[in-house]
Design a protein that fits this description.
The longest helix has 4 residues, at about 45. This protein has one domain (about 5-300): Lipocalin (Beta Barrel). It has a 15-stranded antiparallel β-sheet that branches. A two-stranded parallel sheet has the order 1-16. About 5% of the residues lie in helices and about 55% in strands. The protein has helices at about 45, 105; strands at about 5-10, 50-55, 60-65, 70, 75, 80-85, 85-90, 90-95, 115-120, 120-125, 130-145, 150-165, 170-190, 200-220, 220-235, 250, 255-260, 270, 275, 275-285, 290-295. By secondary structure, it is mainly β. Strand 12 and strand 13 form a beta hairpin.
């Protein structure tokens, strides 16, 4: 899963370090001077689960799930014979009018859902060496406000890279990714003509991830502690907006400091749910226009 829905602009900061399962966000941000885009909810399936708040008190709620089916495992044998793996993912995002943990029966009712977006796609795993993997991916889908006021085609494509290192039981990795993400309106009541508007953003990211097993065990497996330090530079000329509202937040970059625990190669399990890890991340922009806490259930490479 991806992670935030701020409006984006080209950032001049953070060139030294470049850097989305579920996440939960709450951030406070300054309002942008730029005029807002027309359907700000369209990026929700890409950036993920969150609670978003801007300075004028508007709050939007996004819940995202991304079920996936692995069709073939990637492999690389000692003779250099490579098997390219691939899987199908179907991110689904719901925009809610309200979210009240003390009244979940009301929160989960259909009348509380404001938007619905689904963007099926495919990812390929290409093992270049034992330590280096590439992952090209692409998705195309559709979203709409349930009152019929707007709808859009949503899409993204990109390439991820992960290079791993290991020394004395301490593993770490460098993750890089470049993504082209956007939407094109299919219908919008706010526009009198039949002109289809579009918005684009180009997240360029780099993260360092660290993995260290400790003596504690869960279900007979040693506990692994994970740390993440990452940076995203949002390369875009048009803003991404918050939730289903019309307020834009001008954010050019994002830092992430995270910590999680897991069972190494064995997933954490609860009923039919499985997670690679469970943890928290503190995320903020260089100009302090937003900050927040997110839940993390996987490596950045797998979001």
């Amino acid at each position: 899963m991806g992670w935030i829905l701020p409006a984006l602009s080209r950032s001049a900061a953070g060139r030294a370090l470049l850097t989305a399962s579920a996440s939960v966000w709450c951030f406070h941000a300054a309002l942008a001077d730029e005029p807002p885009a027309l359907i700000p909810w369209a990026y929700s399936a890409y950036f993920g689960t969150g609670v978003y708040e801007v300075d004028d008190g508007e709050t939007s709620y996004i819940i995202r799930a991304a079920p996936s089916w692995r069709i073939r495992e990637a492999s690389l044998d000692q003779h250099g014979h490579r098997m390219i793996g691939w899987r199908i993912r179907v991110p689904i995002a719901f925009g809610l009018h309200d979210f009240d943990t003390s009244a979940l029966e009301t929160t989960l009712k259909l009348k509380n859902v404001s938007t619905l977006t689904t963007v099926p796609g495919v990812e390929f795993d290409i093992p270049m060496t034992e330590r280096w993997s590439l992952r090209p991916f692409a998705s195309l889908g559709y979203g709409a406000q349930l009152d019929g006021s707007s709808s859009a085609w949503v899409y993204w494509a990109g390439l991820k890279s992960k290079y791993t290192f290991s020394a004395d039981g301490f593993d770490w990795a460098i993750v890089n990714a470049l993504t082209y993400s956007g939407y094109t309106t299919a219908h919008n009541d706010a526009v009198a003509s039949e002109v289809h508007t579009s918005s684009r953003v180009l997240p360029l990211l780099t993260a360092f991830e660290f993995d260290r097993p400790i003596e504690k065990k869960i279900g007979g497996e040693p506990v692994h502690l994970y740390w993440t330090v990452g940076y995203t530079d949002y390369v875009a000329n048009k803003p991404l907006l918050v939730g289903s509202f019309v307020t834009s937040v001008d954010i050019g970059d994002e830092w992430e400091l995270g910590m999680a625990f897991g069972r190494g190669k064995e997933p954490l399990k609860l009923w039919r749910l499985r997670w690679d890890r469970v943890g928290l991340s503190y995320r903020f922009s260089s100009d302090h226009r937003f900050q927040g806490i997110s839940l993390s259930f996987s490596s950045i490479f797998d979001r």
